[in-house]
Amino acid sequence: MQLKLKLYATLAEFLPPTAVSNVADIEVADDATPFQIIDRYHVPRTRAHLVLHNGNYVPPTERDNPIFRDGDSLAIWPPVAGG
Amino acid sequence: MGWTQKVLRVNLTTGSVATEPLNMDWALKYIGQRGLATKYLFEEIDPKIDALSPANKLIMATGPLTGTMAATGGRYSVITKSPLTGAIACSNSGGFIGNEIKNAGFDMLIFEGKAPKPVYLYLENDKAELLPADHLWGKSVWEADRLLHNDHQDPLLRIACVGRAAEQGCLYAGVVNDLHRAAGRSGVGTVMASKNLKAVAVRGTKGVGNIRDPKQFMLATQTAKKVLAQNPVTGEGLPKMGTQVLMNVINEVGAMPTRNMREVQFEGANRISAEAMHVPRESDGKPNLTTNAACFACTIACGRISTIDPKHYTIVNKPQYMGANGGLEYEAAWALGSDTGVDDLDALTYANFICNEDGYDPISFGSTVAAAMELFEIGALTKEHTGGIEMRFGSAEALTKAAELVAKGEGFGRDLGLGSKRLCEKYGHPDLSMTVKGQEFPAYDPRGIQGMGLTYATSNRGACHLRSYTVSSEILGVPVKTDPLTTDGKPELVKAFQDATAAVDSTGLCVFTTFAWTLEDIAPQIDAACAGDWSPDKMLEAGERIWNLERQFNLKAGLTKADDTLPKRLLKEAAKTGPAKGKVSELHKMLPHYYEIRGWTPDGVPTTDTLHRLAI
């Protein structure tokens, strides 16, 4: 199935070259997990702080679960803040 | 002692300038800056007065750590009664002016009355005098700053100044210091201009001595600096990306107020984000972001310095805007961009430059333009009202023209200078104003971040994210992650953030340190600098005391429980997309319990027991 992988801030360097504006369309197995995708693109797990599946937070304890459906998005940030 | 223990009192009516001792009993209870100046204001004015009358006072206040070697110890605040909200106003700024006031030997400058003609305060250590400002009146902040530096032939002079927007009565004008830092919210600049006070120009060379335990202070500040450096947010994220990193985060979670808060996600967010500010332009190969920048003593350096595309329509034949200047922070980018539907990064940067140049709040301005765009869309505003401007969502031209008009108080700019609440009332649609207590919202939709709904409704200065930034927990997971879509535990979370922030805002430190620091890191620095045996618990108690005193000010000013609410749109119209789709702000589930844990009556009034417990 296809997912939209979004890597922002200092994680942008891990995006595949096909990415446009921090977003890449990627093919993954139907039972892919967030951690599998994070590892596949060499994003250090320690820097994958804010992990959002369709905008909803995925806690570290659930990042080994197959949670995706075709067309979903996975957006990841390192620890960030603002105000 | 941290404090210089001196206050400069300036009577603008009589022209007298006098030094008096700081009330140390109050300092030991209210710390400094926000807390201590609120106590002075509370004791010295009737909260019912007209904010723009000479009876109002304006206080520029530093904290005990301002001007010291503590990281970010350069903050100061402007405290007064707000003309925008009728409530207490306290606007905090960085840059260098706070340090300069402290180094001139003062904890606070209190301005009272009204000068018969425009003046500015010149303060050089013990020498303080009011000087004529006729040649500065009618000038922008940038021009007045240049003239003052020329007049005094002192490149190190630090200047806080109001621009033409304040002079023209824009109700959300701020006090700009060091060209592009600002005490921006609630119209504190409007009050300053109403007193015919154009600027405060300061040169301080005394240093900040009188530290209670210098060795311990050095140890405490060094230890705390390491925490900032090693934290990924304060050590890496904020310096590189600035606050603008939040643009894509908040959009992704579906809490991005868009087109006057009709929607919660903006399709153009990435084009106006921190990431976009790093992308080289076609025209000159340079990115929007030139460099980051730090305020006095700051080891974070989140500030943005930017340029506009030299071929952009906004700066053709306008050399004054072609250089590097204060760039977009998240709050400005959201209000000028997503809320107006404009995704032109250069247009937003230009509007932001204008806000700095003439000293007005880009949050309130952007939100007011957004309201005007909705009024225009429904036909309540026409081109006859706007002077020919097509005030349509997404129009960069409308946004930048509006910025120019507000800056000078010309044409439709005078209506926009009223703020969203008064604009919407004037044109017959008060429900379209996205405000609390008359102040415009910041960049987080409370339908997608429930704690922020309670934050906004109960903020003592009207809608404000900086009074309890529960986004930190609900979205960013700092210090712990909570669910943004539930109301469970939010009253407790909001109260904890409100009290802790009130304490931090009173120290002279920047609230951004709290992405890495807790009061466990801050209290040892205060305690080493100041008398008073400051522990984290004592700081938290002081924060609660400050919060309740601000509340008391507002109640005496005539505000009631009815003002602790949100616009109907956020309570009745559900979010249309994203994780919060179908949700409204559930304020009614949180507010009664919030009053209860605050020790207030069901009508939101602090009980006698609460006031007694906090020694107010």
The N- and C-terminal alpha carbons of chain A lie at a distance of: 37 Å
Q: Quaternary state, please?
A: heterodimer
* Tally of separate helices of chain B: 25
- Total strand segments of chain A: 5
Main-sheet strand order of chain B equals 2-1-6-3-4-5
What does this structure look like?
The complex is a heterodimer of chains A (83) and B (616). Chain A has 83 residues and is mainly beta. Chain A has a single domain (2-77), classed as Beta-grasp domain (Ubiquitin-like (UB roll)), CATH 3.10.20.30. In chain A, 8% of the residues lie in helices and 27% in strands. A five-stranded mixed beta sheet of chain A has the order 2-1-5-3-4, with no helix packed on it. In chain A, strand 3 (50-53) and strand 4 (56-57) form a beta hairpin. The N and C termini of chain A lie far apart (37 Å). The model of chain A has no long low-confidence stretch (mean pLDDT 97). With 616 residues, chain B is of the alpha+beta class. Chain B has three domains: 6-203, Aldehyde Ferredoxin Oxidoreductase,  A, domain 1, CATH 3.60.9.10; 257-434, Aldehyde Ferredoxin Oxidoreductase Protein, subunit A, domain 2 (Orthogonal Bundle), CATH 1.10.569; 444-613, Aldehyde Ferredoxin Oxidoreductase Protein, subunit A, domain 3, CATH 1.10.599. Chain B contains 25 helices and 17 strands. In chain B, the strands form four sheets. A six-stranded mixed beta sheet of chain B has the order 2-1-6-3-4-5, with helices on both faces.
Helix and strand layout, with pairings?
The complex is a heterodimer of chains A (83) and B (616).
Chain A: E1 2-7, E2 23-27, H1 34-40, E3 50-53, E4 56-57, E5 73-77
Parallel strand pairs in A: 1-5
Antiparallel strand pairs in A: 1-2, 3-4, 3-5
Chain B: E1 6-11, E2 16-21, H1 24-30, H2 33-44, E3 57-62, E4 76-81, E5 88-93, H3 97-103, E6 108-112, E7 119-124, E8 127-132, H4 141-152, E9 158-161, H5 164-167, E10 175-177, E11 181-183, H6 188-194, E12 197-203, H7 214-230, H8 232-241, H9 246-252, H10 274-277, E13 289-293, E14 303-306, E15 325-326, H11 330-338, H12 345-358, H13 362-377, H14 383-386, H15 396-408, H16 412-416, H17 420-426, E16 435-436, E17 439-440, H18 450-458, H19 471-474, H20 490-504, H21 519-529, H22 536-557, H23 568-572, H24 587-598, H25 608-613
Parallel strand pairs in B: 1-6, 7-12
Antiparallel strand pairs in B: 1-2, 3-4, 3-6, 4-5, 7-8, 9-10, 9-12, 10-11, 13-14, 14-15, 16-17
